[in-house]
Design a protein that fits this description.
Layout (H helix, E strand, L loop, with lengths): L1 E3 L6 E5 L2 E5 L4 E4 L13 E5 L2 E5 L4 E4 L4 E4 L11 E6 L5 E5 L2 E6 L2 E5 L13 E4 L5 E4 L3 E4 L5 E3 H4 L6 E3 L4 E4 L5 E4 L2 E3 L2
Antiparallel strand pairs: 1-2, 2-3, 3-4, 5-6, 6-7, 7-8, 9-10, 10-11, 11-12, 13-14, 14-15, 15-16, 17-20, 18-19
């Protein structure tokens, strides 16, 4: 389901059977029986310093090497418990894509964006990515950007609305070596 390769000497994999850590020599496996994971199915995984952030269908899990902390809609400001994507921006903000929108965790505070308070659609977030300017880019039946100040823009707004462009659902996002956002999608141009 997910892999974090940000540190080749400390790879993390999220699978339907739990999380696995590969230190270059051996695997260490974590599941709901031998760790603080609430369930085995890991939908997203990201390493940030010594913290490992894992998405599940019952919330967000943070593992600091010793302690397991579970964030969900009951005990935090997380907008939805079904996690689809996680990214950490350069300023340390943890961006979490869910079935009902995006939540950001920064300095122990939560802020959420959904169709109820922004132009994001009311469908699952497929993928998120952050750029060097701490913007969060979102793929969800189109491309959207959330600025560090919380403004939400659609790709159409960003490239001038008169440009004849339609980005199809399930558009992929990525980041190149210089930190620039790359959009991977079949694009239909208008006449």
């Amino acid at each position: 389901f997910s892999i974090d390769v940000s540190d080749p000497a400390d790879l993390w994999l999220g699978t339907r059977l739990g999380a696995s850590r590969f230190n270059g020599f051996t695997f260490t496996n974590y599941d709901s029986l031998n760790s603080g994971l609430p369930v085995n199915k890991i939908t997203a995984i990201v390493k940030n310093g010594s913290d490992i952030w894992m998405g599940t269908n019952v919330g967000l899990v943070k593992y600091d090497g010793t302690n397991w902390t579970i964030f969900n809609t009951i005990n935090s400001g997380l907008i939805n418990d079904t996690i689809t994507s996680i990214k950490v921006s350069a300023n340390g903000s943890v961006w979490v894509g869910t079935f009902r929108g995006v939540s950001v965790y920064q300095n122990s505070n939560w802020t959420s964006f959904s169709y109820q308070n922004s132009i994001l659609p009311s469908i699952p977030i497929y993928e998120i990515e952050t750029d060097v300017f701490n913007n969060c880019w979102i793929s969800a039946s189109g491309i959207f950007k959330i600025s560090p100040t919380g403004q939400v823009f659609s790709l159409a707004q960003l490239i001038q609305e008169d440009f004849p462009l339609q980005v199809l659902p399930r558009t992929g996002l990525g980041k190149d070596i210089s930190g620039k956002i790359a959009i991977n999608a079949p694009i239909k141009s208008g006449m």
